[in-house]
Amino acid sequence: MKNREILPVTALMLGILLITACSSSKVAAPDGSGKVNLAGTWTVSNIDFEGISKTGFKVTVFDDAPYSCFVGSQWTLTGSGNGSYTIPASGDCASGERTIFWGQQTENGVPTFLFKKLPPGSKPSKITDGFKLTVKSVNANSLVLQDDIFFEGKTIYINYHFTR
């Protein structure tokens, strides 16, 4: 199954160019309560679904690992756009750190979080695929990112709950 959030090359490159040229690490809260700096260390505390039962549902996310492997993962985001996430060792999860390049932007009034995985030794400008998640909520200590996936004829949503 291919995730819908993989961006076309042109859109991703334009988005990354805009992110690096004029964006900060602050994202506008969807409720209008101000901007929150995303730079720092975040931990995925929970993952839930909308539109499908989590029971028996298995999906690989971010072209990496089953969604359950991301619970407890630690995401380090710097103000420069560099970052990483680390999947903890548990069960059948391929643990370890993955390097990413990230940013945020607003599309049609909706804040989004963008990132692309960087294989060792590669530069962000050479990577053409990435991921886009909607910022559902954010404050100084919590963040919810939503990933939409077209599955069995309908859109389902995966919500990643982060804490700092």
Structural class: mainly beta
Biggest beta sheet attributes: 8 strands, antiparallel, barrel
CATH architecture: Beta Barrel
Strand order of the largest sheet: 3-6-7-8-9-10-11-12
Summarize this structure as a short list of keywords or feature phrases:
164 residues, mainly beta, Lipocalin, two-stranded antiparallel sheet
Written overview of the protein:
The chain is mainly β and 164 residues long. It has a single domain (9-163), classed as Lipocalin (Beta Barrel). Helices cover 9% and strands 49% of the residues. The protein has one helix spanning 9-22; strands spanning 26-28, 35-37, 40-50, 60-61, 65-66, 74-77, 82-87, 96-107, 110-118, 131-138, 142-151, 154-163. Strands 3-6-7-8-9-10-11-12 form an eight-stranded antiparallel beta barrel. Strands 1-2 form a two-stranded antiparallel sheet. A two-stranded antiparallel sheet has the order 4-5. The longest helix has 14 residues, at 9-22. The radius of gyration is 15 Å and the shape is globular. The N and C termini lie far apart (31 Å). Residues 1-6, 9-14 and 16-22 have low confidence and may be disordered.
What does the secondary structure layout of this molecule look like, with pairings?
Elements: H1 9-22, E1 26-28, E2 35-37, E3 40-50, E4 60-61, E5 65-66, E6 74-77, E7 82-87, E8 96-107, E9 110-118, E10 131-138, E11 142-151, E12 154-163
Antiparallel strand pairs: 1-2, 3-6, 3-12, 4-5, 6-7, 7-8, 8-9, 9-10, 10-11, 11-12
